[in-house]
Amino acid sequence: MSHIFGPVPSRRLGYSLGVDIVPRKVCTLDCVYCQVGTTTVKTMERKEWVTPELILLELEKAVTGTEKINYITFSGSGEPTLNSALGKIIKRIKQLCSVPVAVLTNGTLLYLPEVRNDLMGADLVVPSLDAASHDVFDMINRPHGDLSVEKVIGGIRSFRKYFQGQIWLEVMLVKGINDSRKELERIEMLIRDCGADKIQINSLARPAPDSAIEAAAKEKLQFARNLFGEKAEIIGGFTNMAPGSLPDNIQESIAELVKRRPCSVSQVSRSLGIDEAVIVKCFETMLSKGMVEEILHEGDKYYKEC
Asked: What is the per-residue pLDDT across 176-208, written as a single tens digit (0 to 9) for each?
Protein backbone atom coordinates (compact mmCIF):
# COMPACT_ATOMS: atom_id res chain seq x y z
CA MET A 1 0.00 0.00 0.00
CA SER A 2 1.99 2.94 -1.26
CA HIS A 3 -0.45 5.69 -0.20
CA ILE A 4 -1.75 4.40 3.16
CA PHE A 5 0.55 3.96 6.16
CA GLY A 6 0.15 3.06 9.81
CA PRO A 7 -1.65 3.29 12.10
CA VAL A 8 1.25 5.29 13.50
CA PRO A 9 1.46 6.80 16.99
CA SER A 10 0.85 10.54 16.78
CA ARG A 11 1.71 12.97 19.55
CA ARG A 12 -1.55 14.80 18.81
CA LEU A 13 -3.99 12.31 17.32
CA GLY A 14 -3.43 8.98 19.09
CA TYR A 15 -3.29 6.17 16.52
CA SER A 16 -3.47 7.73 13.09
CA LEU A 17 -3.93 5.92 9.78
CA GLY A 18 -2.00 8.07 7.30
CA VAL A 19 -3.28 8.95 3.83
CA ASP A 20 -0.61 10.25 1.45
CA ILE A 21 -2.12 11.92 -1.64
CA VAL A 22 0.84 13.75 -3.18
CA PRO A 23 4.23 12.41 -4.33
CA ARG A 24 7.30 12.95 -2.20
CA LYS A 25 8.03 15.84 -1.78
CA VAL A 26 5.52 18.10 -3.51
CA CYS A 27 4.83 21.16 -1.38
CA THR A 28 4.27 24.90 -1.36
CA LEU A 29 7.03 25.29 1.25
CA ASP A 30 10.49 23.91 1.95
CA CYS A 31 10.55 24.15 5.75
CA VAL A 32 13.97 23.82 7.35
CA TYR A 33 12.61 21.44 9.99
CA CYS A 34 10.59 19.11 7.73
CA GLN A 35 11.15 15.47 8.73
CA VAL A 36 10.28 14.29 5.20
CA GLY A 37 13.27 16.10 3.73
CA THR A 38 13.95 18.81 1.17
CA THR A 39 11.13 19.81 -1.17
CA THR A 40 11.75 18.48 -4.67
CA VAL A 41 8.75 20.14 -6.36
CA LYS A 42 7.81 23.53 -4.92
CA THR A 43 4.51 24.39 -6.53
CA MET A 44 1.12 26.07 -6.09
CA GLU A 45 -0.53 23.94 -8.79
CA ARG A 46 -3.44 21.80 -7.64
CA LYS A 47 -4.16 18.62 -9.57
CA GLU A 48 -4.98 14.94 -9.02
CA TRP A 49 -1.48 13.89 -8.07
CA VAL A 50 -2.99 10.59 -6.87
CA THR A 51 -6.44 9.44 -8.04
CA PRO A 52 -9.31 9.03 -5.53
CA GLU A 53 -10.03 5.49 -6.80
CA LEU A 54 -6.54 4.27 -5.88
CA ILE A 55 -6.66 5.89 -2.43
CA LEU A 56 -10.10 4.46 -1.60
CA LEU A 57 -9.14 0.97 -2.77
CA GLU A 58 -6.09 0.94 -0.49
CA LEU A 59 -7.93 2.61 2.39
CA GLU A 60 -10.76 0.08 2.40
CA LYS A 61 -8.21 -2.73 2.78
CA ALA A 62 -6.36 -0.86 5.54
CA VAL A 63 -9.46 -0.08 7.60
CA THR A 64 -10.68 -3.70 7.48
CA GLY A 65 -9.25 -5.72 10.35
CA THR A 66 -7.59 -2.79 12.16
CA GLU A 67 -8.57 -2.93 15.82
CA LYS A 68 -8.32 0.77 16.61
CA ILE A 69 -7.81 3.96 14.61
CA ASN A 70 -8.35 7.34 16.27
CA TYR A 71 -8.10 9.35 13.05
CA ILE A 72 -7.72 8.88 9.33
CA THR A 73 -5.14 11.58 8.69
CA PHE A 74 -4.11 13.28 5.47
CA SER A 75 -0.37 13.87 5.84
CA GLY A 76 2.82 12.19 4.69
CA SER A 77 5.06 13.13 1.79
CA GLY A 78 3.90 16.65 0.92
CA GLU A 79 1.09 19.21 1.16
CA PRO A 80 -2.27 17.35 0.90
CA THR A 81 -4.31 20.38 -0.23
CA LEU A 82 -2.31 20.36 -3.48
CA ASN A 83 -4.40 17.36 -4.53
CA SER A 84 -7.50 18.74 -6.24
CA ALA A 85 -9.43 15.52 -5.42
CA LEU A 86 -9.09 16.03 -1.64
CA GLY A 87 -12.74 16.94 -1.13
CA LYS A 88 -13.92 13.96 -3.14
CA ILE A 89 -11.69 11.59 -1.16
CA ILE A 90 -12.90 12.93 2.20
CA LYS A 91 -16.51 12.51 1.09
CA ARG A 92 -15.89 8.90 0.08
CA ILE A 93 -14.14 8.15 3.39
CA LYS A 94 -17.20 9.39 5.26
CA GLN A 95 -19.29 6.92 3.26
CA LEU A 96 -16.83 4.12 3.96
CA CYS A 97 -16.45 4.37 7.75
CA SER A 98 -17.15 6.45 10.87
CA VAL A 99 -13.51 7.20 11.79
CA PRO A 100 -12.90 10.98 12.16
CA VAL A 101 -10.92 12.63 9.36
CA ALA A 102 -8.02 14.98 10.09
CA VAL A 103 -6.01 17.04 7.62
CA LEU A 104 -2.51 18.21 8.54
CA THR A 105 -1.76 21.15 6.27
CA ASN A 106 0.72 24.00 6.13
CA GLY A 107 -2.31 26.25 5.60
CA THR A 108 -0.82 28.09 2.65
CA LEU A 109 -3.69 27.36 0.26
CA LEU A 110 -6.58 28.15 2.60
CA TYR A 111 -6.95 31.54 0.91
CA LEU A 112 -8.42 29.64 -2.08
CA PRO A 113 -12.22 29.12 -1.86
CA GLU A 114 -11.95 25.72 -3.58
CA VAL A 115 -9.48 24.47 -0.94
CA ARG A 116 -11.69 25.67 1.89
CA ASN A 117 -14.64 23.90 0.26
CA ASP A 118 -12.66 20.64 -0.08
CA LEU A 119 -11.94 20.67 3.65
CA MET A 120 -15.51 21.20 4.81
CA GLY A 121 -16.08 17.45 5.21
CA ALA A 122 -13.14 16.98 7.60
CA ASP A 123 -13.59 16.74 11.36
CA LEU A 124 -10.26 18.34 12.24
CA VAL A 125 -7.92 20.61 10.29
CA VAL A 126 -4.44 21.40 11.65
CA PRO A 127 -2.82 24.32 9.78
CA SER A 128 0.62 25.72 10.58
CA LEU A 129 1.78 29.23 11.36
CA ASP A 130 5.48 29.43 12.16
CA ALA A 131 6.20 33.10 11.47
CA ALA A 132 4.68 36.56 11.58
CA SER A 133 7.38 38.57 9.82
CA HIS A 134 8.44 38.20 6.20
CA ASP A 135 12.12 37.62 7.03
CA VAL A 136 11.37 34.77 9.46
CA PHE A 137 8.74 33.29 7.09
CA ASP A 138 11.36 33.15 4.34
CA MET A 139 13.97 31.72 6.70
CA ILE A 140 11.96 28.95 8.36
CA ASN A 141 9.37 28.02 5.71
CA ARG A 142 11.21 28.94 2.48
CA PRO A 143 7.90 29.50 0.65
CA HIS A 144 6.88 29.52 -2.98
CA GLY A 145 7.31 33.02 -4.41
CA ASP A 146 3.55 33.63 -4.60
CA LEU A 147 3.05 33.22 -0.84
CA SER A 148 3.14 35.69 2.04
CA VAL A 149 2.37 35.68 5.76
CA GLU A 150 -0.68 37.87 5.09
CA LYS A 151 -2.04 35.38 2.57
CA VAL A 152 -1.57 32.46 4.99
CA ILE A 153 -3.22 34.08 8.03
CA GLY A 154 -5.98 35.54 5.84
CA GLY A 155 -6.76 32.05 4.56
CA ILE A 156 -6.96 30.60 8.08
CA ARG A 157 -9.32 33.36 9.19
CA SER A 158 -11.53 32.94 6.13
CA PHE A 159 -11.68 29.18 6.68
CA ARG A 160 -12.76 29.64 10.31
CA LYS A 161 -15.83 31.64 9.23
CA TYR A 162 -17.41 28.61 7.56
CA PHE A 163 -15.75 25.46 8.93
CA GLN A 164 -17.79 23.75 11.66
CA GLY A 165 -15.14 21.28 12.77
CA GLN A 166 -12.10 21.70 15.00
CA ILE A 167 -9.11 23.85 14.02
CA TRP A 168 -5.87 23.24 15.88
CA LEU A 169 -3.22 25.76 14.88
CA GLU A 170 0.34 24.43 15.07
CA VAL A 171 3.33 26.67 15.76
CA MET A 172 6.65 24.90 15.22
CA LEU A 173 9.51 26.57 17.08
CA VAL A 174 13.11 26.25 15.90
CA LYS A 175 16.08 27.39 17.94
CA GLY A 176 17.46 30.75 16.84
CA ILE A 177 14.97 31.26 14.01
CA ASN A 178 11.45 31.95 15.29
CA ASP A 179 11.74 31.54 19.06
CA SER A 180 12.66 35.13 19.95
CA ARG A 181 10.36 37.13 22.21
CA LYS A 182 9.76 39.65 19.41
CA GLU A 183 8.70 37.05 16.84
CA LEU A 184 6.53 35.13 19.31
CA GLU A 185 4.72 38.34 20.26
CA ARG A 186 4.11 39.02 16.56
CA ILE A 187 2.73 35.50 16.09
CA GLU A 188 0.44 35.97 19.08
CA MET A 189 -1.00 39.13 17.52
CA LEU A 190 -1.75 37.26 14.28
CA ILE A 191 -3.45 34.28 15.90
CA ARG A 192 -5.45 36.34 18.40
CA ASP A 193 -8.58 36.42 16.24
CA CYS A 194 -8.03 33.38 13.97
CA GLY A 195 -10.65 31.36 15.90
CA ALA A 196 -8.53 28.26 16.51
CA ASP A 197 -9.88 25.78 19.06
CA LYS A 198 -6.32 24.96 20.15
CA ILE A 199 -2.88 26.47 19.66
CA GLN A 200 -0.35 23.64 19.64
CA ILE A 201 3.26 24.59 20.31
CA ASN A 202 5.69 22.10 18.90
CA SER A 203 9.38 21.59 18.26
CA LEU A 204 11.57 19.00 16.57
CA ALA A 205 10.83 15.45 17.71
CA ARG A 206 12.77 13.88 14.82
CA PRO A 207 15.94 14.89 13.00
CA ALA A 208 15.71 17.70 10.44
CA PRO A 209 17.42 17.41 7.01
CA ASP A 210 20.04 19.90 8.21
CA SER A 211 21.74 18.72 11.41
CA ALA A 212 22.30 22.37 12.40
CA ILE A 213 18.55 22.84 12.90
CA GLU A 214 17.74 22.33 16.58
CA ALA A 215 14.67 22.15 18.77
CA ALA A 216 13.75 25.25 20.75
CA ALA A 217 14.57 25.23 24.46
CA LYS A 218 11.86 24.16 26.90
CA GLU A 219 11.73 27.63 28.43
CA LYS A 220 10.97 29.08 24.99
CA LEU A 221 8.09 26.65 24.57
CA GLN A 222 6.79 27.56 28.01
CA PHE A 223 7.05 31.29 27.26
CA ALA A 224 5.06 30.79 24.05
CA ARG A 225 2.38 28.80 25.89
CA ASN A 226 1.93 31.53 28.48
CA LEU A 227 1.91 34.20 25.79
CA PHE A 228 -0.63 32.47 23.53
CA GLY A 229 -3.13 31.99 26.36
CA GLU A 230 -5.47 29.34 27.68
CA LYS A 231 -6.01 27.61 24.33
CA ALA A 232 -2.30 26.96 23.97
CA GLU A 233 -0.59 23.67 24.82
CA ILE A 234 2.88 22.20 24.41
CA ILE A 235 2.80 18.93 22.47
CA GLY A 236 4.44 16.08 24.34
CA GLY A 237 5.41 12.53 23.50
CA PHE A 238 3.17 9.59 22.67
CA THR A 239 2.99 6.93 25.38
CA ASN A 240 0.07 4.58 24.61
CA MET A 241 0.86 1.12 23.30
CA ALA A 242 -0.45 -0.06 19.97
CA PRO A 243 -3.38 -2.49 19.91
CA GLY A 244 -2.44 -4.19 16.64
CA SER A 245 -1.36 -7.74 15.94
CA LEU A 246 1.98 -8.87 14.49
CA PRO A 247 2.27 -7.89 10.80
CA ASP A 248 2.91 -10.71 8.33
CA ASN A 249 6.03 -8.99 7.01
CA ILE A 250 7.64 -6.92 9.75
CA GLN A 251 10.46 -5.49 7.64
CA GLU A 252 7.98 -4.37 5.00
CA SER A 253 5.85 -2.65 7.63
CA ILE A 254 8.91 -0.91 9.10
CA ALA A 255 10.04 0.20 5.64
CA GLU A 256 6.63 1.81 5.04
CA LEU A 257 7.06 3.88 8.21
CA VAL A 258 10.67 5.02 7.79
CA LYS A 259 10.38 5.94 4.11
CA ARG A 260 8.05 8.79 5.12
CA ARG A 261 9.82 10.04 8.25
CA PRO A 262 12.71 9.02 10.52
CA CYS A 263 11.58 6.74 13.37
CA SER A 264 13.15 5.45 16.55
CA VAL A 265 12.91 1.85 17.75
CA SER A 266 10.34 2.81 20.38
CA GLN A 267 8.17 4.70 17.85
CA VAL A 268 8.09 1.71 15.50
CA SER A 269 7.40 -0.62 18.43
CA ARG A 270 4.39 1.45 19.53
CA SER A 271 3.10 1.79 16.00
CA LEU A 272 3.24 -1.90 15.11
CA GLY A 273 2.60 -3.34 18.57
CA ILE A 274 5.82 -5.37 18.43
CA ASP A 275 8.41 -5.82 21.19
CA GLU A 276 11.37 -3.44 20.88
CA ALA A 277 13.86 -6.31 20.85
CA VAL A 278 12.25 -7.62 17.64
CA ILE A 279 12.41 -4.14 16.07
CA VAL A 280 16.10 -3.81 16.97
CA LYS A 281 16.88 -7.12 15.22
CA CYS A 282 14.92 -6.00 12.15
CA PHE A 283 16.80 -2.71 11.98
CA GLU A 284 20.13 -4.55 12.28
CA THR A 285 19.18 -6.69 9.28
CA MET A 286 17.90 -3.68 7.31
CA LEU A 287 21.12 -1.78 8.06
CA SER A 288 23.24 -4.68 6.80
CA LYS A 289 21.18 -4.77 3.59
CA GLY A 290 21.52 -1.01 3.07
CA MET A 291 17.73 -0.53 3.37
CA VAL A 292 17.98 2.09 6.14
CA GLU A 293 20.55 4.40 7.66
CA GLU A 294 21.02 5.37 11.29
CA ILE A 295 21.09 9.01 12.40
CA LEU A 296 21.38 10.66 15.80
CA HIS A 297 19.01 13.36 17.06
CA GLU A 298 19.45 14.83 20.56
CA GLY A 299 21.21 11.67 21.68
CA ASP A 300 18.59 9.25 20.31
CA LYS A 301 18.95 6.89 17.37
CA TYR A 302 16.56 7.24 14.41
CA TYR A 303 16.32 5.25 11.21
CA LYS A 304 15.34 6.49 7.78
CA GLU A 305 15.16 5.05 4.29
CA CYS A 306 18.44 5.16 2.37
From this structure: 999 999 999 999 999 988 999 999 999 987 777
CATH number of 241-306: 1.10.10.10
* pLDDT, position 149: 94
- Closest Cα to residue 85, out of 52, 124, 123, 122? 52
Band of the pLDDT at 123, cuts 50, 70, 90? very high
Locate the DSSP E strands across the chain: 4-10, 14-19, 26-27, 41-42, 71-74, 101-104, 124-126, 166-172, 198-202, 232-234, 292-297, 300-305
**Domain definitions of the chain by residue range:** 4-240, 241-306
Residues 6+ apart with CB under 8 A from 278: 250
Q: Which CATH class is domain 4-240?
A: alpha beta
Classified as helix, coil or strand, 17 is strand
